[in-house]
Design a protein that fits this description.
259 residues; Rossmann fold; two-stranded antiparallel sheet; 6 helices; 13% strand; globular
Length: 259
Amino acid sequence: MSINIKPFFVSANVHNSHNYIRDLRSRCFADQENKAKETNLDLVGGFVLEPIGPNRKMGKLANCKSESEPHCVSKNIMKVQNLARIHRIESHHPMENEKKLLVLDLDLTLISGSHKERPFLHQFLTHTYQHYNLVLWSDSMMYRIRRILKKLKMHRHEDYKFSFYMCCNSVVYVQKGRREKKCKPLELIWRQFPAWGPHNSIIIDDMARNFLMNPQSGLEIEKFRGGEDDTLPQLAKYLEKIAGMDNFSTLNHNEWQNV
């Protein structure tokens, strides 16, 4: 549900007009949440729409981190659901069931802003490919992604393969407080490939906001802007160590450098 509030002017008291708009928006969000609860949205895996507090276990679709933002819950879930219904991933290499899922960002994660490879890039991908299905998800146009991968000889490498690529068309704007932020909801992948979920998936990015809908599955690394860097060898060791675990949902990826 959305509402368009047309501009208007109140000459007597501008402050009151601002309060009116704020109150109207608050009532709108409250009505939206109540309606979603009444209809009991059909979420993947039998999830029931309800606010998630700090002591409640999160499912595949993570919600707001604080109960002070209850209006975000239904709005964010519905956005992901609406995209998931029409979203289709074009697979380039079959997913292997015995492997976990590793989703990688491109810009400032694997390459610099000038398209320079992060040191040990191909060694990292070759090593992790032994344990993970590799997926590249960039907030960029698909034609640019393909051009960069071809330039860096990553698109047809003999030692590793990407199962598929995802671009800016798969990014979702979700409500975080009073602002909307872009993120990469893994639910889009899990719906089409149900063998993978929070228990065996991890996404690596230089921006934590991309994990808003899947905070437990996200691992943030330092941005790469060029020069010497040993991040990928350290990361490869961590990924190899956890690859044999049955459930990733109990891990604290923030401690990856200490493992």
